[in-house]
Amino acid sequence: MKFQPVIGLEVHVQLKTNSKIFCGCSTAFGSSPNSQTCPVCLGLPGALPVLNKQVVEFAIKAGLSTNCSITPRSIFARKNYFYPDLPKGYQISQFEEPICQHGWLDIQVEGQDQKRIGITRIHMEEDAGKLVHGEIAGLEKGSGVDLNRACTPLLEVVSDPDLRTSDEAVAYLKQLHQIVTWLGISDGNMEEGSFRCDANVSVMPVGAAQFGTRAEIKNVNSFKFVKQAIEYEIQRQIDLIEDGGTVVQETRLFDPNSGTTRSMRGKEEAHDYRYFPDPDLVPLVIDPAWVERSRSELPELPEKKKQRFMESYSLPAYDADVLTATRALAEYYEECLALQTNPKAASNWIMGEVIRGLNDSGLPIEECPVTPRLLTDLLRLIEEGTISGKIAKKVFDEVWKSGKDPKTIVEEQGLVQVSDSSAIEAIIDDLLAREAGQVAEFRSGKDKLLGFFVGQVMKASKGKANPAVVNDLLLKKLKG
Amino acid sequence: MKITAANVEHVARLARLELSDEEKNLFAGQMDAILAYVEKLKELDTDGVLPTSHAVPMENAFREDVTEPPIGTEKALANSPDRADAFYRVPQIIE
C-alpha cells in the first residue's frame, strides 16, 4: 500500500519585546536564574497581569504579513494544566478568539510548483519557565525551576494540515522565519528557542478520505532536525501500520543524537485543558483604523522586494533571492543602488566578495567594514577603467582590513590600471621578442596561446594593465 | 447531564485531588444540584446576546513595553519550600 503523509506545524515565535507580555520584567536571555521575576510572572496570588501593547502590535504585523484577517474582538483564556515550569497552574493563551485567523503563505520547493499553505490561526500567549536537570550543585536529586522565561511573549502560528513532505515543511518554516525576522518582531534565534516548532504528523493510504491518527513531535529546534524528525516519524508510522499495528495519538520527543522520535508517556490526560476566558484580562478590541495604521507601517516584504529587484533592475531570480535573504542584506543592496551604481555589478560583488567576507569573519552585514559607500566607490573605479576587476578584489580586501577608501588605497599602492597603449606596447614587444617560438606556433594556428600571452603581459604589469587594451594590442601585433 | 462519581474522579485527578469513594458520591450529588440550579438560566431567551467573558464592560487595558525592576532572586525564592542555588527545587522531572 502507498501512503500519503499529512503534516501540520505549530510554531512558537518569541517576540522581541523589552518586557514580558503581562508584566514589566525584562525578557533578556541568559541572566542568572529567577532574577527577572515579579509577583505577576511568579504567579503569586493577587497579582494582576496587564497586556503589553507592543505584543499586540507585533501580532497584528505578523498576521497582516501572512495574509490573516485580524479578529476585531479577541479574548485571552486560561489553559489549565500542572507542570513545575508553570507557576500559576494555567498558561494565559488565546483559545476561541485568536488575534489572527485564516491566513496563508505560498511556498516554493525547488523543482516544484508554488503551493499555498493555509494558516489556521496565530495567537498570543505567555511562555513557561525553564526546567534544569542534573548539572547544578544541589540538583543531583530533583529538578531546578528558573522562571526568567515565564511570561515571555510568544506567538503561536498554527498551519492547516496542508503540508505533504518534509521539504514542504522546511520551506514553510523558512519562509515564516524570514517574515518574522524581516518584520523585526523576533530575533528568530533557534538555538536560544526564539523559534520552536512542533510537528503534527500522520499518514493515510493514498486516496483515503480521512486523515490518519497523528502524533505530535515536540520542540524540534533546527530546520535540519525538522526534516529528520518528520521523515523518521512518517516511516515509523508506515512501518507500524504495515506490521498490522495502529498509530496512537501521543506526544513524541525528537532525539537529535539518534535522529529518532520517542513517546513521552504520562501526559495522556494533559490534553483536557479546560479553557475558559481569563477574567484578569479584558477583551482586546482592534478597530479597522488600528489595522490600517499597522498595515501602513509594514516594511516591503521579502517576496515583494524580490519581484521588484527582478523587474526594476533586471536581476536574475537567483540574485534577487540571495539579496532578499535578510532585510539587512536587502537594505545594504538598496543603499548601494541609492549611490548610483550598476545594479548587476553591485549584486555580483555582494553575492561574491561581501558575503564571502561576512562568512569568513562571522560578522553580520550591519557590521560589514566595506560599507555601501566604499563598495560603490570601488565599483566606480572599475567602471571608469581606473583599476581592473582583478586588482579590485585586492583593493576590496584592503578596504575590508583598513576601512580606507578604495581611491586612497589605489593611489598609495600604485594600483592604477595602465591603459596607456605605449606602455603596454613596450611590454608586449619585449615579450614577443623573448617568446619567438610561441609566436610562431600561434601564427601557425594555435589560437589557445593567446591566453598565455595575455597572462604574461598581465604578470609583467603586476596586474595593472587594462586587459581589454592588452587583448587588442596583442591580437594586432600577433596577427600583424 | 447527570454528574456521576466518574465525572468527579476525572475532574479531581486533573486538579490533583485524591478523593475517597464516599467523597466522590457526595460531591457528585452536590455538583449535580449546582448545575441543575444553573440550568435554570436556559429558560431565558439569549438570542443575539454575546457570551459574557467579563462582568465589567471594559476593553483594551494596556501597559507600554517598558521594563520595571524585578523583585530580585532572594525575594522571588523567599517562600519556596525547597531551593538549590538560585533555582526552585522540585522532585525530579523525567523527560
UniProtKB/TrEMBL annotation, chain A:
EC annotation from Swiss-Prot or TrEMBL: 6.3.5.-
Could you tell me which InterPro entries the record lists for this protein? Asn/Gln-tRNA_amidoTrfase_suB/E, Asn/Gln-tRNA_Trfase_suB/E_cat, Asn/Gln_amidotransferase, Asn/Gln_tRNA_amidoTrase-B-like, GatB, GatB_C_1, GatB_Yqey_C_2, Gln-tRNA_amidoTrfase_suB_CS
**Which reaction(s) does its UniProt entry say it catalyses?**
L-aspartyl-tRNA(Asn) + L-glutamine + ATP + H2O = L-asparaginyl-tRNA(Asn) + L-glutamate + ADP + phosphate + 2 H(+); L-glutamyl-tRNA(Gln) + L-glutamine + ATP + H2O = L-glutaminyl-tRNA(Gln) + L-glutamate + ADP + phosphate + H(+)
Q: Which domain of life is it from?
A: Bacteria
Q: Where is the signal peptide?
A: none
| Record-annotated Asn/Gln amidotransferase domain positions | 331-478
Cite the Pfam families for this sequence. GatB_N, GatB_Yqey
EC primary class: ligase
- The UniProt record lists the keyword Ligase: yes
**Which keywords does the record carry?**
ATP-binding, Ligase, Nucleotide-binding, Protein biosynthesis
Similarity remark: Belongs to the GatB/GatE family. GatB subfamily.
Q: How is the quaternary structure described?
A: Heterotrimer of A, B and C subunits.
What is the stated purpose of this protein? Allows the formation of correctly charged Asn-tRNA(Asn) or Gln-tRNA(Gln) through the transamidation of misacylated Asp-tRNA(Asn) or Glu-tRNA(Gln) in organisms which lack either or both of asparaginyl-tRNA or glutaminyl-tRNA synthetases. The reaction takes place in the presence of glutamine and ATP through an activated phospho-Asp-tRNA(Asn) or phospho-Glu-tRNA(Gln).
Record-linked HAMAP family: GatB
Q: What is this protein called?
A: Aspartyl/glutamyl-tRNA(Asn/Gln) amidotransferase subunit B
Q: Which organism is it from?
A: Pelotalea chapellei
Automatic annotation (TrEMBL), chain B:
Q: Which SUPFAM superfamilies match?
A: Glu-tRNAGln amidotransferase C subunit
A Pfam family found in this protein is GatC
Transport among the record's keywords?
Answer: no
Q: Keyword Ribosomal protein, does the record have it?
A: no
Keywords from UniProt, A to Z, are: ATP-binding, Ligase, Nucleotide-binding, Protein biosynthesis
Q: Which domain of life is it from?
A: Bacteria
Q: Which reaction does it catalyse?
A: L-aspartyl-tRNA(Asn) + L-glutamine + ATP + H2O = L-asparaginyl-tRNA(Asn) + L-glutamate + ADP + phosphate + 2 H(+); L-glutamyl-tRNA(Gln) + L-glutamine + ATP + H2O = L-glutaminyl-tRNA(Gln) + L-glutamate + ADP + phosphate + H(+)
Enzyme Commission no: 6.3.5.-
Q: Which NCBIfam families match?
A: gatC
- PANTHER family from the UniProt entry: GLUTAMYL-TRNA(GLN) AMIDOTRANSFERASE SUBUNIT C, MITOCHONDRIAL (PTHR15004:SF0)
What is this protein for, i.e. what is its function?
Answer: Allows the formation of correctly charged Asn-tRNA(Asn) or Gln-tRNA(Gln) through the transamidation of misacylated Asp-tRNA(Asn) or Glu-tRNA(Gln) in organisms which lack either or both of asparaginyl-tRNA or glutaminyl-tRNA synthetases. The reaction takes place in the presence of glutamine and ATP through an activated phospho-Asp-tRNA(Asn) or phospho-Glu-tRNA(Gln).
Family classification: Belongs to the GatC family.
- Subunit structure and binding partners: Heterotrimer of A, B and C subunits.
Q: Write the protein's name.
A: Aspartyl/glutamyl-tRNA(Asn/Gln) amidotransferase subunit C
